[in-house]
Design a protein that fits this description.
Number of strands: 13
Strand order of the largest sheet: 3-2-1-4-5-6-11
Largest sheet: 7 strands, parallel
Helix content: 25-40%
Oligomer: single chain
CATH superfamily of the largest domain: NAD(P)-binding Rossmann-like Domain
Strand content: 15-25%
CATH class of the largest domain: Alpha Beta
Order of helices and strands: EHEHEHEHEHEEHEEEHEEHEHHH
Shape: globular
Number of domains: 2
């Protein structure tokens, strides 16, 4: 299958590219720079220069592919509204090119804001809060299932990790600790953060591309979640720093998200698609230490 991927040069995108190539698929990845293009090629894909703002190019590349995986997001937390609008326009362009084809269109989403309840795959996407617009975008794309697109969403937790490569939101805690000299947590630290190894996430993206049922979402989580205090404690131990509570505002726009208890389950995903995480859990990767320098 010829697969077009946005975000292919990124941490998750490279793992997805390698996963697809290892299973006989051909990957065409969007790349904003020569360095990004090289990362796509190093992972076994073919690079095409462009960015999310070039909706005409995105529509063309999606139409030429046998399937599409959307992973790219600007991650500009200083202007989330702009980033979310850009993502929505990009997904609309790609989805529009696939209408009536029956081709798979797998998008990335996030586990549902659950207010302390365990989020499942059947829960409605979150459409309020700091990143609620991304839920609105995802719901609109999943709705293309009624227009002949085999859409599906892989809901990622806040920490997609692999030792020394990436730690997701836990990586933000590492960087903050390295900068401040304190391994920080907000609230009472009991709020749970689900996580998944990026290689396990990549295998689920491939499964949804190959087998995903139109209009459905899956949860890419290893377990219901480790507490923020547990995560901060391990980081503090590895860096030799004190573990302290800090005001939510310390983490800027992300502070509200960090303060939420958001456990999630992947029971339905495992039962339906036979997906089974096989790589280390977040705390194991964190305990291994050897963090990238700030």
């Amino acid at each position: 299958m010829r697969v077009f991927i946005t975000g292919a040069p990124g941490t998750i995108g490279r793992a997805v590219t390698e996963e697809l190539v290892s299973h006989g698929h051909r990957v065409v990845g969007l790349a904003r720079s020569e360095a990004s293009a090289q990362r796509v090629m190093d992972a076994g894909g073919e690079a095409v220069r462009g960015d999310l703002g070039d909706t005409a190019l995105l529509g063309t590349l999606a139409g030429e592919a046998d399937g599409v995986i959307h992973l790219a997001f600007s991650n500009d937390f200083s202007d989330l509204e702009r980033s979310i609008a850009e993502e929505g326009a990009a997904m609309d362009a790609m989805g529009g090119a696939l209408v009536g084809t029956g081709k798979p269109f797998v998008i990335v989403s996030g586990t549902t804001f659950s207010d302390g309840a365990v989020a499942t795959e059947q829960d409605a996407l979150s459409t309020t809060g700091p990143v609620g617009g991304r839920g609105i975008n995802a719901a609109r794309i999943l709705g293309l299932a009624s227009r002949g697109v085999r859409t599906s969403a892989v809901r990622l937790p806040r920490s997609v990790h692999e030792r020394y490569v990436a730690y997701g939101f836990a990586g933000i805690l590492i960087q903050a600790a390295q900068a401040s000299g304190v391994s920080a947590y907000v609230g009472d630290g009991s709020q749970r953060w689900p996580a998944v190894h990026r290689r396990d996430a990549a295998s689920l993206f491939r499964l949804m591309l190959e087998e995903g049922e139109a209009g459905f979402s899956v949860n890419a989580v290893n377990d219901e979640g480790d507490t923020m205090l547990e995560i901060a404690t391990v980081i503090g131990e590895q860096l030799g720093l004190p573990v302290e509570q800090v005001p939510t505002e310390t983490f800027g726009p992300l502070g509200q998200i960090f303060a939420m208890d958001q456990p999630a389950s992947s029971a339905w995903t495992r039962e339906t698609y036979g997906w089974e995480p096989a790589h280390p859990r977040l705390l194991d990767d964190l305990r291994a230490g050897d963090y990238p320098a700030r």
